[in-house]
Amino acid sequence: MKYDIIMAGVGGQGALSVSSIIASSAMSEGFYVKQSELHGMSQRGGAVVAHLRISDKPISSDMIPVGAASMILSMEPLESLRYLAYLSADGMLVTSTDPMKNIANYPDLGEVLRQIELTPHHVMLDSDQVAKKTGSAHSGNMVMVGAASHFLPVRAETIEKFISQMFARKGEKVVTANLKAYHAGRLAAEGSPGL
Amino acid sequence: MTQKVLLGDEAVALGAIDAGIHAAYAYPGTPSTEILEYLLAHKQKHNKPFAAWCANEKTSYEEALGVSFAGRRAMVSMKHVGLNVAADPFINSALVTINGGLVVVSADDPGMHSSQNEQDSRYYADFAHIVCLEPANQQEAYEMTREAFDVSERFHIPVMVRIVTRLAHSRSVVNVSEPRAESPLSRADSPASWILLPVNARRQWHKLLETQKDLLDYSERSAYNSLRLSKDNNELGVITTGIAKNYYLENLSELDSEPSHLHIGVYPLPVEKIRKLVSHVKRVLILEEGYPYLERYLRGIIEPAVRIQGKLSGEVPREGELTPDNIRNALDLPPHRGLELSGFALPNRPPRLCTGCPHADSFHAIKGAVDANESVFMASDIGCYSLGALPPYSAIETCVCMGASIGMAKGASDAGLRPAIATIGDSTFLHSGVTALMDCIAADTDMTVIILDNETVGMTGGQPTILPDSRLESVVLGLGAKPEHVYVLSAHPKQNERNAEIIHQEINYNGLSVIITVRECLETLRRKKRDKQAEPAGSELVAV
Ligand code: SF4
Predict the structure, then answer these.
(1) Contacts of residue A31 in chain B, CB cutoff 8 Å?
(2) Residues 6 or more apart whose Cβ sits within 8 Å of residue B509
(3) What is the per-residue pLDDT for A42?
(4) Is B522 near chain A, with CB under 8 Å?
(5) Are B348 and B390 in contact (CB under 8 A)?
(6) How far apart (Å, rounded) are the C-alpha atoms in residues B6 and B64?
(7) Which of B350, B390, B411, B425 is most buried, by the most CB atoms less than 10 A from its CB?
């Protein structure tokens, strides 16, 4: 079993904590894991990408080969397209449709979404809207973890456990809010045509 | 044995702790920053080892050298270009008889994710005639760092650990072994070997050259240099170094027959092992991250009948990082394919200054100070404010190396290009702008230096500036700048107009002016607020 994930977003969106929760969950279920990160200049509001590799055999490369990714998990629609070449033909594109328009030449959002719809397997959801409905506007990230959770090789309960652990230091309220967002994301993805 | 999830950088740091280091020094620089950050966090919990940010890489190196003189183990870590700054003490330290283990970690940045060049630190190790260890993964990063201290003490030389961005910034499980205790204080017993007067230096140089055969012997025997000759493949031999091995292994299962393989993790290059491999095959493919260091070397030592493939011959890309994909051609494998975007132009999303960044206000004030039709020379430097090069600011014309802006503005002014303005951050100023400023003060050069003081090292994540910021003004005055042309201004949107007037006035003054514009970086400000409210959850993996 091998599950490679390209984690995309814009610097500061927290793609790394998403990656971290999935990586921790996979590790606790006995998988080998490698997780690459980005630091420094690239993080200042620019495009960021992290590679997360999960496997039942030791992993050599920290980088995922082109065409090999089982999933692109993106916090932002335009960024979900940037690494398309990494996605395998039967790979799943899971993305938020909530745009981060910090560049002057951001393309027409409708056109971006249309491009996503052209990919064979995709799940799109407005993570911000879903998060707001659960009453925690800042948990868009966890909504995306929830949406992705259907496809990951780890159990949903394991992911829940690690979300709780990650936010434990911030107190019970924050944990509950993030778990709620996670479940809302899971539910929202269920109705999606990508599934 | 315990298991930990660590970044490559953190594995290096923990390796040093478990090797019993007494002290660690560094100047922040991507991708090496997290090494000292890990050590600082460890120090906070366990009260050791001594760990500190320094003014620059040169002072870091010299401080580590002092620890070694005193018989204790020390580590100094930096990014590849930082080694240029520390080159003077680094190269010379190979001539002293190292006492306590001294390890220098240099983190290279092939692909220039966050750097001005791609230079390969292995050349520096070679140049200094010392041992270099190059880990292939997080586990080796831990083990090799530990070993590096032993090697340093065994051969009485500094030892380099060379890592690259991809390893420094990716996480994996590391098996950690029993830590070793710290060595006691014991002053170097032959001080003459530390006094590099010509008479001593010549003796030490001779000794270092004599040691080379022992270093080679160590390298030839090291298990990190592993040779596997394939019985049924006399055609192709692959040599990998460091993390290039991973990309080779990633493709291996697709090859029809497994080539002979030599992996190199220890330098000096194991010549015998290389010869053994080469005599076994008709063609050698060299996969190494960085410059074609090994490839060049090889072209000098093997039979011309054997074909050498690599970066020089063009089968492996000479620029940027290696990847599992860009070496496939050299392995005669077809390219991988993924999904494609058809007819949709994807705009770039470059990094930018945070909204509301104090540097933006400084740039606005500077632009406001310059008459629209005036041609001004605007030198700048390395830090978040380098992003002032991009629209909407387009406010700077140079960014070369730490501290260069002040020296370059002086040169341009000396040449007659005026008005000349240098912008530089507070930390970069203290790192290596301050010495150039002395030249300007001595000559009372007609130019304006603007120190953009955001009270932190912003680019690398908000490490403290080495001298508290309130002291910058007294540093500048203490050097002898004329008080009537030294200003401390607030880099605040409300002040932009007034600041522009002052800058305008000083640009028109025929002599040296120094203007310090102060306002704290938003990131550190936010972090301080957060820390007050609650402990933040880290981005670290949660313990398994
Ligand atoms: S991190 Fe600080 S200094 Fe850097 S761009 Fe953001 S606010 Fe400005």
Answers:
(1) none
(2) B485
(3) 57
(4) no
(5) no
(6) 25
(7) B425
